[in-house]
Design brief:
- By secondary structure, the protein is an all-alpha fold.
- The chain contains four helices and no strands.
- 85% of the residues lie in helices and 0% in strands.
- The longest helix has 56 residues.
């Protein structure tokens, strides 16, 4: 009878350990992801997009490159009283999301710049074609 009880306890303990080995990493990942989500949310609220649009618009490819190369720093007021692990995860997420947003808006500004140059070149081309037509019409007849 003691062997059966020991076997049952052994099975229950094994099942408990197997569940714990699966559940603990999942729970730990959820705990670690909270500062990452907080950092992304803070970056969405604090990173200025208009300045990067203007940088892409006026600096073109250089503004686009700067958007992805310059990492924004999170405000220190958001990190006061937090653990070192939280600060590291928050800062990593803030910089990653901030670079992504900066680069996206600089790319949009760069695309608008290219479109404006295209319209300008097209307008100058049409104007030049009309001038050439006028020249040949008035001076060749």
């Amino acid at each position: 009878m003691k062997e059966r009880k020991f076997c049952f306890v052994k099975r229950v303990l094994s099942l408990f350990l197997a569940i714990a080995l699966i559940a603990v990493p999942i729970l730990a990942q959820q705990v670690e992801s909270q500062p990452y989500l907080d950092g992304q949310r803070a970056a969405e609220q604090n990173v200025g997009t208009a300045i990067w649009f203007v940088a892409g618009l006026f600096l073109s490819v250089l503004g686009f490159a700067m958007g992805y190369l310059i990492a924004p720093n999170p405000p220190a007021s958001l990190l006061i009283g937090k653990s070192v692990e939280y600060v590291m995860a928050f800062t990593d997420a803030y910089k990653s999301k901030g670079k992504s947003m900066q680069g996206k808006w600089a790319l949009i500004g760069c695309a608008v710049n290219a479109a404006l140059w295209g319209v300008l070149i097209l307008a100058v081309g049409i104007w030049a074609a009309e001038e050439v037509d006028d020249y040949y019409y008035w001076y060749q007849n």
